[in-house]
Amino acid sequence: MTKRLKSTDDAQPVIWGGRNQKELENIVKKLEEIEVIELSKQRSSRMLKKLKHKAKFEARLLEIQQSERGWFEDDDGLEL
User: Fold this and answer.
1) Count of other CB atoms within 10 angstroms of residue 31
2) Sequence-ordered list of residues with C-beta below 8 angstroms from that of 64, at least 6 positions apart, any chain
3) Range of weakest confidence among 5-9, 25-29, 30-34, 64-68
4) Hey, which of 35, 39, 43, 71 would disulfide with 47, CB 3.0 to 4.6 Å?
5) Rounded CA gap, 17 and 34, in Å?
6) Who's near 52: CB < 8 A, 6+ residues apart?
7) What pLDDT, in 10s, does the model give residues 33-53?
8) Domain boundaries defined on the chain
9) CA pseudo-torsion sign 53, 56, 59, 63
10) SS3 for 66?
11) Residue of 35, 33, 23 lying closest to 62 (CA atoms)
12) Per the confidence metrics, is the pTM higher than 0.90?
C-alpha cells in the first residue's frame, strides 16, 4: 500500500491539450499578421489578399473554440 501511495505522490499531473491546438495556434498567428496589416498605411496586393481571409479565420477560430469547450464550461471560464 505504501508503494502505491508513494507512486501517486511522485506522479506529475496530466495537462490536457486541445485536439486542434496546432491549427488554433496557426489561426491566431495569421490573425495577428492581419492585424498588423490593418494598422499599416501602405498595403501591397499580397497584404490585401490576406485581409480578404480574415472573416474565414475568425469563423474557424470560433468553431474550434466551441468544439474544444466542455459541457461544464460556461462562457466566462472558456480560455483558449
Assistant:
1) 14
2) 18, 20, 23, 24, 27, 80
3) 5-9
4) 43
5) 26
6) none
7) 999 999 988 888 888 998 999
8) 20-69
9) negative
10) helix
11) 23
12) no
